[in-house]
Amino acid sequence: QAHLVQSGAEVKKPGASVRVSCKASGYTFTFFSIAWVRQAPGQGLEWMGWISPSSGRVHFAQTFQGRLTLTADTSSKSVFMNLESLRFDDSATYFCARLGGEAAMDVWGPGTTVTVSS
Amino acid sequence: SYDLTQPPSVSVSPGQTASITCSSDSLSRQFSYWYQQKPGLAPRILIYKDTERASTTPARFSGSTAGTVVTLTISEVQAEDEADYYCLSGDSNGNWVFGGGTRLTV
After folding, report:
1. Which end of chain B is less crowded, N or C, counting CB atoms within 10 A of the terminal residue's CB?
2. Do A45 and B101 touch (CB under 8 A)?
């Protein structure tokens, strides 16, 4: 059964960077892309970008271009999201989700809370 | 980019039918997907490719499409269906967009 596990909560200062990991199991890692979605407290879902672990190809929402980096490590079946120049409004829960099958984002990680605070 | 428009809230009594719409010109060309999210949890796929139920989706959930509007219908609503519902769609350039979400109150 496909499963995604994410790294733990982070607290960062404005201007810093944060790295969140997403480890896959239960399916062939290179067959699907991984998308990242965030949700600010009390707000809706916002797609950030995706990466294809097999090719390394990435695609970002325009909002995050220049600040977001996605990488994949096929040996550990993990994807890493790095968001730079953090602002207070980057405080959110960040989800990874399997992407690419018929059901689009069909398997989700539990989310990682990132708090930006001075 | 484009927007997917959902009503902010829908209220229904137990046993009734709830309908949640999602509208955008792009939906006449691209598939839609529906997600359910309960407090503190990750979203869960309900419907994919406009009308297909995910393997764990109860039969009382159904999706339909009519041009630029897609609809999630929940028949015989139960208390456990109280949640936020989001539509999702993508474009041919690899971009994805979520609707603003609809809070279903039972």
Report:
1. N
2. yes
Q: Name every chain B residue with its beta carbon within 8 A of the beta carbon of A63.
A: none
Question: What is the structure's pLDDT at A103?
Answer: 81
Of A37, A62, A103, the CB nearest to B33: A103
Backbone CA torsion sign across A97, B1, B63, B75? positive
CB-based contact A21:A77 (threshold 8 Å): no
Give the closest of A103, A104, A110 to B42, CB-based.
A110
DSSP line for B18-84: EEEEEE-GGGGTS-EEEEEE-TTS--EEEEETTTEEPTT--TTEEEEEETTEEEEEESS--GGG-EE
Tokens of A36: 């990242």
Nearest by Cα to A70 from A61, B1, A60, A62? A60
Give the minimum alpha-carbon distance from B22 to chain A in angstroms, rounded to a whole number: 14
DSSP 8-state class, residue A101:
B
Quick one: CA dihedral A3, A48, B38, A40, positive or negative?
positive
Tokens 């989706």 appear where?
Answer: B57
Q: How far is CA A88 from the centre of its chain?
A: 18
